[in-house]
Design a protein that fits this description.
Length: about 260
């Protein structure tokens, strides 16, 4: 991994996945991955990047030994870069699972905790039970998926992460909520917030505008894009983040709490 100093070089892939076409989507994202450039530490794909946000979990679910996870492992190894994105996985039940795949192929997974009941997600998927923070070099990254972003207690930093990473299929009808919540999580947790959303129209005729972005700990957009399929690049600086936390230590006054299962 190249994040050996204070910088984390990331690329966000904002795209329009084809409905229920994993093989076609793997080809599309492979082409976009080939164009991300060199020297990256992390590349992020959207939620359910291989299928779109679907409730047909039994139809499209793959195992951890399936083609899409194997593809992620191959791409991470070829690029020498960690790749993260969520897909539908059958592992006992069906999960909306965010897979964090480093170049060495030893993945970490986060199962979406908060299931979007307005679409019936809770009827087709099992909820995750564990909050997951991964490391890449000196960086600590908290993983979350889409609707999780609405639940600040679940994502509240206990001084245990530097980046909040959220992958999403967040509809255009609630675009302002996406932008506001992602920015709010950055401010309240004094972290970088990285969000990757999709664009286009899915198989349920739901429209998406993207809004993939990186916010700093003051809520400033370092990079942000709407509507188009593209790759965004940004470099995060851990020294700058820690200096800000020392200069404005709001985290010292945080309330203690517990999260129930």
């Amino acid at each position: 991994m190249r994040a050996v100093n204070s910088e984390l070089r990331i690329a966000l892939i904002q795209a329009s996945p084809r409905w229920h076409q994993p093989a076609a989507n793997r080809r599309t994202f492979e082409g976009m991955l080939q164009g991300v450039g060199e020297g990256l530490d992390l590349v992020v794909l959207p939620e359910m990047f291989s299928t779109g946000f679907t409730m047909s979990s039994g139809e499209v679910a793959e195992t951890m030994a399936g083609e899409t996870v194997s593809w992620l492992r191959e791409q991470a190894a070829d690029l020498g870069t960690t790749i993260a994105g969520s897909l539908v996985v059958r592992d006992g039940g069906c999960f909306n699972r965010l897979v964090w795949m480093p170049p060495n192929g030893r993945e970490t997974v986060y199962d979406k905790r908060h299931l979007f009941r307005m679409a019936g997600e809770h009827e087709h998927y099992a909820a995750g039970a564990e909050r997951v923070v991964v490391t890449i070099g000196p960086w600590r990254v908290c993983l979350c998926v889409c609707y999780d972003l609405r639940f600040p207690v679940w994502l509240r930093s206990c001084n245990d992460y530097d980046v909040l990473l959220c992958v999403a299929n967040w509809p255009a009808a609630r675009q302002s909520a996406w932008n506001v919540l992602l920015r709010a999580r950055a401010i309240e947790n004094q972290c970088y917030a990285v969000g990757v959303n999709r664009v286009g129209t899915d198989g349920n005729e739901v429209d998406y505008r993207g809004g993939s972005a990186v916010y700093d700990s003051d809520g400033n957009a370092l990079v942000e894009a709407f509507d188009d399929e593209l790759v965004l690049h940004e470099t995060l600086n851990l020294d700058e983040l820690n200096t800000y936390r020392e200069r404005f230590p709001a985290w010292r006054d945080a309330d203690e709490f517990e999260v129930s299962p």
